[in-house]
Amino acid sequence: MKKIIGTLLIIIITVFSSFSQKVAVGKYATKESTDKAYYAALEAVSGVKFTIKTTDKAQGIIQAEQLSGGGTGKVFASVFVLIKQEDGKTMVQATFTRNDGFMGGDKPAKMAQQYGDYMKKTIADLGIAVEDRK
Questions:
Q1: Per residue, what are the HEC states of 46-95?
Q2: What does the pLDDT read at residue 24?
Q3: Which of 1, 76, 115, 126 is the most buried (most CB within 10 A)?
Q4: Is 52's pLDDT higher than 90?
Q5: What is the spatial distance between Cα 95 and Cα 76, in angstroms, rounded to a whole number?
Q6: pTM for the complete prediction?
Q7: Does domain 21-132 sit in CATH 3.30.310.80?
Q8: Are 31 and 91 in contact (CB under 8 A)?
Q9: Spatial separation of the C-alpha atoms in residues 50 and 118, rounded to whole Å
Q10: E strand or H helix at 36, and its extent?
Q11: β-strand pairing of 61-67 with 51-56
Q12: In whole angstroms, what is the distance from residue 69 CA to residue 53 CA?
């Protein structure tokens, strides 16, 4: 009986942990201007199939989301992008969050890598680092 209860608890914990929110942070560095990085980051949003929700160029902020059901359902994933000058370089930090309750689709770390790859088409010297925060 104890083995059955133990096995059931492991199954329940495994199922519920697979539905938790997933996060990854992409950090991208370049010697290009913040303006060029901002426009590359803005263009990359649609390149990775996100829809822009809000932007503030003066603050260097972009917020976007990806909806389930071909863009008609609930928010499947979101990204918050911050562009700033740091140590003589332009830094772009994009935090990708995949909401719980969805099966299938890309993981945030893959989204962050694709986002960086898309920006690199415009900014050749872009350095890409992705941190998966599971």
A1: HHCCCEEEEEECCCCEEEEEEEHHHHCCCEEEEEEEEEEEECCEEEEEEE
A2: 94
A3: 115
A4: yes
A5: 14
A6: 0.81
A7: yes
A8: no
A9: 13
A10: helix 34-47
A11: antiparallel
A12: 18
